[in-house]
């Protein structure tokens, strides 16, 4: 059987819009769901209201599919049979369906929704309407507009002009009323305390934030470089860029180099977005063309255009200040020690055997590892200086004498006291103190470690600074008029003074991944990884194949921080 469905819609002007379609089959479904054959978007109609199927003799059998019935020729029913040839009228909510036979034998179903009568709503419902007690739409519109202008414009401007002349602080509440309605977004977590204090930054209405507003709180922030030098490094705009600058100044925008060039606010709660790589590359990518006397190499992208790292190291004995040297030159450092990393990290030599004999109670029990001597700071960023008593004395004993059951130890670091102790021991007739521990090297007969610090013909003081002596085993002698003296030991906490490195962020890596200590036989070896090692994981900010896309702000700070040993804060990137 074929159904010809004719939908009639009436516009507001009374014009009818007719749409026809044919459906072949033996079944029709009527309801509010869109997948019905006849879709009736009326809340008085169930999702699947009626199912109509073909019956014998060309009749249609209509059955309610839900809990509601329908109206057939003025009678409410849930189950009915009709003859399309005789015609019938079905009512579902506000829709009326007329069923009849078409000229070609198809069943014609006309769907229409009666237009509202000229009188509007029925009189029975008019008593519940609010139209009789409310003003007209025009009056309500003007009233709403006046309220918006008053609350969100006039009141904030008036309160701003009449607020007390006082420097806003984090403790004083905001003085401008309803200013939150003007905010384009939430402040970052760093400025969250200023959320209701717009006047703290926006000192003048409709004027961009100026640097003096930022420096009112950030008083210790230093300039990236001297302002004239920054301007020269940045270069001067030409052509369209110069026109853009003129337009910006006409609208009270601050000039190049302002705080707001890097730090954008109202971007949403959370951390403030770090400065993008391009901002730095605008100057540093071709700086040598504008600053011909600069010692800085060009840098535009960590993966493709970045110079080799420069480490601050002491290269000569007695050097007052460290010298920055590129790692490409394979520099040697002077730290005042004789220390072979390779010997201490071996898994098979005497050092390894001694660590195993000391056992777990003494913190060992296995060949030495980096963590046995190098301990992280509380924040995990750097490492504490190696301490003789805590990290070395387990193997390198400072015991020099025994009185009964008491062992006497030298005071490491106090050279004058050590010399006095050794002289006093030299004058006594006590036997050398022996222990059952073994250590590499021939330090006494039978390789038994003893406090026999001297050769038979010399005093302990005279032989202490020999290469195999008590002090000279690790330290270099210093000239001091015949007195016991050692060269100063330097343990720099940082080598890359212009950058930032966080060991905590790399704790999943082994020390040997970056530091080739197991192959170093001299304390002069600078065991720092070069840029090629870092590039195995880190590439530029826009690199798609990088394990860790890295912009300039990940390792560098724009503002130098107070104090020569203070490192710039690391800024995490997404």
User: Largest sheet, if any?
Assistant: 7 strands, mixed
What global shape is seen? elongated
Calculate the mean pLDDT score and round it.
Answer: 82
Helix/strand/pairing category: alpha+beta
Radius of gyration, in Å, reads 44 Å
Helix content: 10-25%
Oligomer state equals single chain
Taking the alpha carbons of the first and last residues, their distance comes to 63 Å
Number of strands: 20
Strand order within the widest beta sheet:
2-1-12-11-10-7-8
**Range of strand content:** 15-25%
Flag low-confidence runs: 432-439, 441-458, 568-574
> Number of helical segments?
12
Structure characterization notes:
The protein is an alpha+beta fold and 574 residues long. It is 18% helix and 16% strand. It has helices spanning 123-126, 137-161, 211-215, 227-234, 240-250, 277-284, 341-345, 350-358, 388-392, 415-427, 460-463, 531-534; strands at 2-10, 16-24, 27-31, 38-39, 50-54, 60-64, 70-72, 75-77, 79-82, 88-92, 95-101, 107-112, 310-313, 323-326, 399-403, 406-409, 434-438, 448-450, 538-539, 548-549. Strand 10 (88-92) and strand 11 form a beta hairpin.
């Amino acid at each position: 059987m074929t159904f010809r469905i004719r939908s009639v819609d009436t516009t507001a002007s009374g014009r009818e819009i007719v749409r026809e379609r044919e459906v072949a089959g033996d079944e029709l479904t009527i309801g509010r769901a869109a997948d019905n054959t006849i879709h009736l978007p009326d809340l008085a109609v169930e999702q699947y209201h009626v199912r109509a199927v073909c019956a014998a003799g060309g009749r249609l059998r209509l059955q309610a599919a839900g809990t509601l019935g329908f109206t057939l020729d003025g009678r409410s029913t849930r189950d009915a049979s009709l003859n399309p040839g005789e015609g019938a009228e079905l009512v579902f909510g506000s829709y009326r369906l007329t069923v009849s036979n078409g000229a070609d034998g198809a069943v014609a179903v006309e769907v229409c929704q009666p237009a509202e009568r000229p009188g509007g709503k029925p009189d029975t419902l008019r008593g519940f309407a609010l139209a009789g007690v409310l003003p007209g739409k025009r009056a309500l519109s003007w009233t709403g507009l006046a309220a918006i202008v008053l609350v969100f414009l006039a009141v904030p401007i008036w309160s701003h002009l009449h607020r007390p002349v006082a420097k806003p602080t984090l403790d004083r509440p905001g003085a401008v009323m309803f200013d939150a309605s003007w905010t384009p977004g939430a402040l970052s977590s760093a400025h969250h305390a200023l959320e209701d204090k717009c006047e703290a930054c926006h000192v003048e209405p409709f004027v961009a934030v100026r640097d003096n507003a930022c420096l009112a709180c950030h008083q210790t922030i230093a300039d990236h470089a001297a302002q004239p030098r920054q301007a020269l490094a940045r270069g001067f705009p030409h052509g369209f860029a110069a026109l853009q600058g003129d337009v910006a100044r006409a609208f009270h925008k601050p000039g190049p180099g302002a705080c707001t060039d890097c730090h954008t606010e109202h971007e949403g709660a959370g951390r403030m977005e770090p400065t993008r790589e391009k901002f730095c590359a605008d100057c540093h990518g071709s700086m040598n063309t504008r600053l011909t006397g600069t010692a800085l190499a060009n840098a535009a992208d960590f993966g493709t255009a970045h110079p080799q790292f420069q480490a601050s190291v002491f290269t000569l004995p007695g050097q007052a200040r460290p010298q920055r040297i590129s790692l490409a030159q394979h520099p040697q450092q002077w730290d005042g020690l004789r220390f072979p990393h390779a010997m201490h990290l071996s898994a098979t030599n005497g050092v390894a055997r001694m660590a195993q004999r000391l056992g777990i109670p003494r913190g060992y029990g296995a060949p030495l590892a980096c963590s046995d001597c190098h301990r992280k700071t509380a924040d995990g960023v750097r490492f504490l200086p190696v301490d003789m008593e805590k990290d070395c004395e387990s193997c390198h004993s400072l015991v020099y004498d025994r009185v009964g059951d008491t062992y006497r130890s030298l005071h490491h670091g106090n050279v004058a006291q050590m010399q006095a102790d050794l002289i006093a021991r030299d004058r006594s007739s006590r036997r050398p103190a022996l222990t059952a521990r073994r250590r590499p090297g021939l330090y006494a007969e039978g390789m038994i470690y003893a406090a026999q610090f001297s050769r038979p013909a010399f005093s302990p003081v005279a032989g202490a600074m020999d290469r195999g002596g008590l002090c000279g085993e690790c330290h270099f002698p210093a000239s001091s008029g015949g007195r016991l003296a050692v060269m100063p030991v330097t343990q720099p906490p940082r080598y890359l003074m212009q950058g930032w490195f966080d060991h905590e962020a790399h704790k999943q890596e082994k020390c040997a991944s970056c530091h080739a200590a197991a192959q170093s036989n001299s304390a002069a070896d600078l065991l720092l990884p070069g840029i090629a090692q870092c590039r195995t994981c880190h590439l530029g900010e826009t690199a798609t194949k990088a394990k860790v896309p890295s912009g300039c702000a990940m390792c560098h700070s724009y503002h130098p921080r107070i104090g020569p040993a203070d490192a710039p804060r690391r800024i995490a990137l997404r």
